Amino acid sequence: MKKLIITLFVSLGFLFSQDYVGVKKCKTCHNSKKKGAQFKVWEAGPHAKSYETLKTDRAIEVAKSVGLEGNPWESSECLRCHTTGYEKSGYELKGDDFWTFDPKDKKAKKATKRMTGLQNVSCEACHGPGSDYKKKKTMAAITAGEITGESVGLWTPSEAMCVACHNQASPTYKEFNYEERIKEVSHPYPDELK
After folding, report:
1. pLDDT 10s digits, 61-72
2. What letter would DSSP give residue 116?
3. In a designed cystine with 81, which of 41, 85, 154, 165 is the match (CB 3.0 to 4.6 A)?
4. By three-state DSSP, how is residue 159 classified?
5. pLDDT tens-place string over residues 92-137
């Protein structure tokens, strides 16, 4: 019981202290076949294009039909489910000045790269903000069983996560069967974990 309480407090601490790092950070390690090629699986799936769908004529029609004013790609109602970490230290709406910066400004370039990496429903939408588990050393410790993923904020995807967006409140809702749909987005484990 004592261990459970300590784990709970540590996990809550990480939940509130972690930052989203963006999909490009995940790609650096999770792109090779040896590591499971998870990025390639994600990139080929619908979540990798979720933000861009907000810019389609169909999305504009849907937004108007439910009474949203403005563009769907600038609407909180849409961004909550079409980006990663919206309103939770992740994706943020930014003005034009954010996206147009002096190429010599490394800080602005890094911020823009991070924000672009949070467009779409990416790795951290299912696995949690990656700032505390992104390092190879940390992932190796998880793999070796030295620490748990939860202790560094690595979430285990669940049905509850999915139905936060895939539910009847969505204007484009289609019946959602978690057991079937999870297979569509599942990706392989790294060879060393098999």
Report:
1. 999 999 999 999
2. H
3. 165
4. helix
5. 988 888 888 888 999 999 999 999 999 999 999 999 999 999 999 9
